[in-house]
């Protein structure tokens, strides 16, 4: 039995990881909205973020290789295009459309609509037989969809174009996270480590977004005085530095999510995500002046109730049934990395908790 000091240290570590996740997640949402007010090139911004994430992932891989003395995984071209390409394309479209929608809608509507991605994740998980259906889904689906309808009904700041964009992004996000779960749990690929996964995803994400960027923003950006037609060096350096900040936030968000899962559990990330939505909406109303009626707030509560029910049911079924997905091997060398190693520190935890920690969360 663990002593009180160990429980305290574990609790403080969990709180620290959750706060780190909040900083990057909420920070990048408000950063993107702030940037879109004066820089109307969301696809170009996303491409810059992709390049930054790839660069930071490559540096981190090199540091980990120096630390462990083990070579990092590098997929063959055949496996790369067959296995990684679908996930990369779905991820690129999800992130690109999400950032694009911030040109038109408020943070409140964006946050609310993106939270419904759990519906699409659930749909594709059932379609690919990653989860088993249960009778309580007849409550989860109406609660989430009904809450979204109430939130958008007669909203004074509703924009149809932006709403459709973020809703399509949520749909693609369901595909994205389902494919990500399959990708990272295939032992033969060796992409268990989030750094390796991010490193392999970024190049194909860039190629997937590039045609859409050239078609929608290429000509306009090439004649913009913010970058290519700049007359002074200072504004150019300012634009590049501001865009780089977003890339750092995006890298930190991806890594903090997986770090939180690996050191705690997928349930912790799911519950943290619910409170994050509440914090985001409150900050949007306070800092950005987003206006929401009583009906909108009621819709948000109804939607969160559906999401909370889904999270609770998933936790219940995962503890009472064998996992539907093949867990990662505890002997995998990727789990011996300093950033992901938790078996020795958590040897006193139950076997159920260990299985849950190896789950890749569909968030």
Automatic annotation (TrEMBL):
One GO CC annotation: membrane
Keywords, alphabetical: Membrane, Transmembrane, Transmembrane helix
InterPro entries cross-referenced by the UniProt entry: Sugar_P_trans_dom (IPR004853), TPT_transporter (IPR050186)
Ranges of residues in domain Sugar phosphate transporter: 15-309
Taxonomic superkingdom: Eukaryota
Positions with biased composition (Acidic residues): 350-363
Transmembrane segments: 12-31, 43-64, 109-128, 135-153, 159-179, 199-216, 236-255, 267-288, 294-317
Protein name as catalogued: Sugar phosphate transporter domain-containing protein
């Amino acid at each position: 039995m663990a002593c009180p000091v160990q429980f305290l240290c574990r609790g403080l570590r969990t709180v620290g990881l959750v706060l780190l996740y909040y900083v990057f997640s909420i920070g990048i949402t408000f950063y993107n909205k702030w940037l879109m007010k004066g820089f109307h090139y969301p696809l170009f911004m996303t491409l810059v973020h992709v390049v930054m994430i790839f660069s930071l992932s490559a540096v981190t891989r090199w540091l980990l290789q120096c630390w462990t003395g083990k070579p990092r995984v590098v997929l063959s071209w055949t496996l790369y295009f067959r296995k990684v390409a679908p996930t990369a394309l779905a991820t690129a479209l999800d992130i690109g459309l999400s950032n694009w929608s911030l040109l038109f809608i408020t943070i409140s509507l964006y946050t609310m609509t993106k939270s419904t991605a759990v519906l699409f994740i659930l749909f594709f998980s059932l379609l690919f037989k990653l989860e088993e259906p249960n009778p309580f889904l007849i409550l989860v689906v109406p609660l989430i969809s009904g809450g979204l309808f109430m939130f958008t009904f007669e909203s004074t700041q509703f924009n149809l174009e932006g709403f459709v964009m973020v809703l399509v992004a949520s749909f693609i996000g369901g595909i994205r996270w389902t494919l990500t779960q399959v990708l990272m749990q295939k032992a033969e690929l060796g992409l268990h480590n989030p750094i390796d996964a991010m490193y392999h995803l970024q190049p194909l994400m860039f190629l997937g977004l590039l045609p859409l960027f050239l078609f929608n923003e290429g000509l306009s950006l090439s004649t913009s005085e913010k970058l290519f037609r700049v007359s002074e060096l200072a504004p150019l350096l300012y634009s590049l530095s501001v865009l780089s900040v977003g890339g750092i936030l995006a890298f930190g968000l991806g890594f903090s999510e997986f770090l939180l899962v690996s050191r705690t559990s997928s349930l912790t990330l799911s519950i943290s995500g619910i409170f994050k939505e509440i914090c985001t909406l409150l900050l949007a109303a306070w800092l950005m002046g987003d206006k929401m009626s009583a009906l909108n707030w009621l819709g948000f509560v109804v939607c969160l109730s559906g999401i909370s029910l889904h999270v609770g049911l998933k936790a219940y079924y995962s503890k009472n049934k064998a996992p539907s997905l093949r867990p990662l091997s505890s002997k995998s060398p990727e789990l011996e990395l300093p950033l992901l190693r938790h078996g020795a520190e958590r040897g006193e935890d139950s076997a159920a908790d260990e299985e849950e920690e190896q789950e890749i969360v569909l968030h």
